[in-house]
Design goal:
- By secondary structure, the chain is an alpha/beta fold.
- It folds into 2 domains: 169 residues, Creatininase (Rossmann fold, 3-Layer(aba) Sandwich), CATH 3.40.50; 101 residues, no CATH class.
- The chain contains 9 helices and 6 strands; from the N terminus they run E-E-H-E-H-E-H-E-H-E-H-H-H-H-H.
- The strands form 2 sheets. Strands 4-3-5-6 form a 4-stranded parallel beta sheet, with helices on both faces.
- Strand 5, helix 4 and strand 6 form a beta-alpha-beta unit.
- Helix 2 crosses helix 9.
- The longest helix is centred in the C-terminal third of the chain and has 22 residues.
- The radius of gyration is 20 Å and the shape is elongated.
- The two termini are 28 Å apart.
Length: 281
């Protein structure tokens, strides 16, 4: 419900029409927090819906803290590179673009001017960025995808681990997030015989060392040489060289809090800025 613009429920799909109208009429600068993720393989131990399940937790908590509405318009994302593994569902780039554009366009028809997009899957990034750019022009709305924080000690620790071990998919970082948010869906026993399955040219593997003076250059060479289908470089679906069982749940909880707090503060500061003339109807 909503009373004088103050929400007690934050999922858009759980609100009644009167509650949504009350919120829109009484919240000075209403914001929709849109989440996108994926349904794709996440190694032998994490749920196929890892990215979407995680982003649901993020957007709902951000909406709750900022009196916004949370919108999760779809579970799948853009995941053709995961299709070598059973269970993956991928949208085409056009479909995901359409979902984002239609979601923003629909809510803009009801007067909403501010949209905050949170993404849980790397494969969606370019499509999301283009959708934001196009929606801004087509619907005359503001669309943001705040990223951060990146300057805290914890953020630097996670970034360093991701650089050094390519811990970006189904490794300790992502496993920790799942154990923190939905531990009942994690099957660590499937890792009992786990070993590194990342298979890349030995020369390329040398490029994963962030201590190299030329790391800024060679890490991009590594990216340019990564096969388009991940089944060609990992038989388990786990990307990195470090053991997923080394996941730190407490670290993941702190990182969740950091990110939620950052985006919540972004929205609060954003709401202090009057709608620029260019976005006024």
């Amino acid at each position: 419900m909503s009373e004088n613009g103050k929400l007690s429920k934050f999922w858009l799909h759980e609100l009644t029409r009167p509650a949504f109208v009350d919120w829109m009429e009484n919240e000075k600068h209403p914001v929709a927090v849109i989440g996108i993720g994926s349904i794709e393989q996440h190694g032998p131990h994490l749920p196929l819906g890892m990215d979407s399940l995680a982003i649901q937790h993020y957007i709902h908590e951000v909406a709750k803290r900022s009196n916004s509405v949370a919108v999760h318009p779809c579970f799948p994302g853009y995941s053709p590179h995961h299709m070598g593994f059973p269970g993956t569902i991928t949208f085409s780039s056009e479909t995901l673009m359409g979902v984002l554009m239609d979601t923003i366009g629909s809510l803009s028809k009801h007067g909403m001017k501010r949209f905050c997009v949170m993404n849980g899957h790397g494969g969606n990034v370019q499509i999301m960025n283009l959708a934001m750019r196009l929606a801004k022009r087509k619907y005359n709305v503001m669309v943001a995808a705040p990223q951060g924080p990146t300057d805290t000690e914890l953020a630097k620790t996670v970034a360093e681990r991701q650089k050094r071990h390519w811990d970006v998919h189904s490794g300790p970082t992502e496993t920790g997030g799942a154990l923190a948010l939905f531990p009942e869906l994690v099957e660590l026993s499937n890792l009992d015989d786990w070993e590194v399955t990342l298979k890349m040219d030995p020369k390329l593997m040398e490029f994963r060392d962030p201590d190299r003076p030329d790391y800024d250059l060679v890490s991009q060479v590594y990216g340019a040489c990564t096969p388009p289908n991940n089944i060609d470089f990992t038989s388990t679906g786990v990307y990195g060289k470090n053991d997923p069982r080394d996941a730190d749940v407490e670290e993941s909880k702190k990182r969740f809090e950091e990110r939620v707090s950052f985006v919540t503060e972004f929205i609060k500061v954003w709401k202090t800025i009057p709608t620029p003339k260019a976005f006024q109807d």
